Amino acid sequence: MFKIIIPILVIALAAFVGMNAKSGLIRGVADGMLVSPARPAVAVKPAADFASVDARRVDLSPSVQNSMLQATSVQAVYALYNHEGPQAAPAHLAALLAVSQNDETWPVEPELGFPAIRHKKQDIDGFSGFADTYVLDAKDDHAPAAKVAPWPPGEPAQWENGSLVRRFTFILWFYKAKLIVEYREPLPAPSDMPLEDNIPLLTDFEARALESFRLLNGDPKNG
To answer: What is the pLDDT of residues 121-175, one digit of tens each?
Structure first.
């Protein structure tokens, strides 16, 4: 029976930035898309109005559940994008693929580790996974060990109160890889209606999240 890797993808995808980050990518990005560094191939293609901000590879050593091993080896590649254009509303897109290098596998259903406003199974472009909507505080949007912000300096003030996030999680390659795509917008201003009860707002937000990217088989010619 395979060991199970305890999920290491914490509240912010940006928690990987600055943790053994290696400048530049030899593998992992092609034509602005996050592409898996091994077969079977998978790629995250951002919508046309998202521009690349950064892309890197990191080597991680998460702990292992029910094992005498203190940690295992996981290789991850990630890409960050900004919503840009004359009429573009503020939004971020982040994609990360983490691959076990040993025999450990990821849990079938994500263990979030944070409260989700909405959770559902989600099929996108032939890939089956889960989608979660949650709130990310601005203070949590950095790498805890290095205090590195994931986005360029000079972010507009509307991000100071945090983000509304739609996270898509897919377990791939017989549970050997975890793919996460996050769409973020500035947290809406407080209102008399609690955010979790504002169904029209959440429905519109989640629709924009779905339109922010596509999943491909990894070959840019098929995109």
So the answer is: 999 999 999 999 999 887 776 543 333 456 665 566 778 888 999 999 999 988 8
The predicted model scores a pTM of 0.83
Residues 56/21, Cβ–Cβ less than 8 Å: yes
Cα(223)–Cα(216) distance, integer angstroms: 6
End-to-end CA distance of the chain: 37
3-state SS, residue 127: strand
Rounded (5°) CA angle 167-34-161: 40
Contact 51, 179 (CB under 8 A): no
Instruction: Output the CA torsion sign for 124, 140, 14, 74.
Output: negative
Q: Report whether 7 contacts 110 (CB < 8 A).
A: yes
Question: Residue for token digits 């979660």?
Answer: 132
* C-alpha to C-alpha distance for 172 and 16, rounded to whole angstroms: 20
Residue 174 φ then ψ, to 5°:
55, 45
The DSSP 8-state label assigned to residue 40 in this structure reads S
Give the max Cα distance, the chain. 55
Question: What pLDDT is stored for residue 1 in this prediction?
Answer: 34
pLDDT of residue 14: 40
